[in-house]
Amino acid sequence: MSFHVDLLGALFMIWGVLTMLIGASTLALGIAAATLVEAHGRAGGSEFAARMTAATFTTLAVLALIWGFAHLVVGRQLRRRRDWSRLTALVIGSVDLFLLPYGTALGAYALWTLLRERTKPLFDSAAPAP
User: Fold this and answer.
1) pLDDT tens track for 99-119
2) Cα 77 from chain centroid?
3) Is residue 127 part of a domain?
4) Reduced to 3 states, what is the DSSP secondary structure of residue 40?
5) How far apart are CA 8 and CA 41, in angstroms?
6) pTM for the whole thing?
7) Number of compact structural domains in the chain
8) How wide is the angle at C-alpha 20 spanned by C-alphas 5 and 120, nearest 5°?
9) Which terminal residue of the chain has fewer beta carbons within 10 Å of its beta carbon, N or C?
10) What would the pLDDT profile of 33-62 be if each residue is shown by its tens digit?
11) Is residue 128 in some structural domain?
């Protein structure tokens, strides 16, 4: 099961990097939308819609950056067999189940790997790290 935990940690880190890249590109879209609103500030419904778009992109970008960073941290700690990383990865993997299609696969693999009885002793705080 050690192989599966190492693979899961690597997959979490890859997912984290990809999510952070998506967050960075969405942040660029949010900044561009905000810049266009300021450059062409027109009164009316179109200005409200443009500001709402900029705010939505920026909010989603920040959430994606945080979510990606969380995956990076937890993935690295899974590979180090930190006792808290198993529970954290189970929580994050459970949320990933709702992110179709790749997050669902990653979440299912995380649950399958980390809920097995043979995996639990790997994260015992008294056990030496490999």
Assistant:
1) 999 999 999 999 999 999 999
2) 15
3) no
4) coil
5) 48
6) 0.87
7) 1
8) 15
9) C
10) 888 888 876 666 677 888 898 999 999 999
11) no
